[in-house]
Amino acid sequence: MRWFHHFSYQSPVSSSLFLSMSVDFFATTNRCLVSFVILAVKSVIVEVGDFTRYGGSKQKISASATIHRDYDHFKYKNDIAVVTLSEPVDRSRVISLCDRNYERSTLAVCGMGLVDVLFNSSPEFLQEAQLQEVGPSQCFARDWSQREQICAHSAQSSACMGDSGGPLFPVSGGRSVCVYGVVSFGDNKCRESSVYTRVSAYAGWIRQQM
């Protein structure tokens, strides 16, 4: 990032994941789990323990993924998945799903994606960026749904490659309030706004997977 994550996903495809529902389940985006070569990754390994890319004290937990059956990997529609852990995570703080709009609130996104696109460099530690929700006239994307997606922007930082599936959340008193969205896609230079799956639009589907 341009930002941070709590869990790393090990596969040839992607990067990191975030606990959002309970100690046994969490939501992420399909871009974390799907590529044009491997169309559906069903089994993943989740690392829990610290906020570093290398070293640290991490616990590896096997997990399975449920991808939304209507996911469109060309237009990033229905870009949501639920990862089920094979065992509970005791030391994580559970963050619930947001059940209302936070368009006037300060939002934060976190991950371990690229911090420099030109040099293809990634951070050693979890990163965070603060953003504001924007409407269609300010969003770089043209084909997106305000009902199912969120567009957020900052002049200083953005989500970037490797951040897909990470959390977008409103911040109050320095703490995350609830999971508002999960990173879906952005521009190739990571300088514009980025688009997030609106988790409240999929709350029913997410709970069905639990």
| CATH T-level topology | Thrombin, subunit H
CATH superfamily label? Trypsin-like serine proteases
Strand content: 25-35%
Name the structural class.
mainly beta
- Name of the CATH architecture: Beta Barrel
Gyration radius over CA: 15 Å
Strands, count? 13
Helix fraction bin: under 10%
Question: What is the count of structural domains?
Answer: 1
H/E element sequence? EEEEEEEEEEEEEH
Which stretches are low in confidence, meaning pLDDT under 50 for 5 or more residues running?
1-23, 33-39
Mean pLDDT: 78
Count of individual helical segments: 1
Strand order of the largest sheet: 2-1-4-5-6-3
Major β-sheet annotation: 6 strands, antiparallel
Global outline? globular
Distance between the ends: 31 Å
Broad CATH class: Mainly Beta
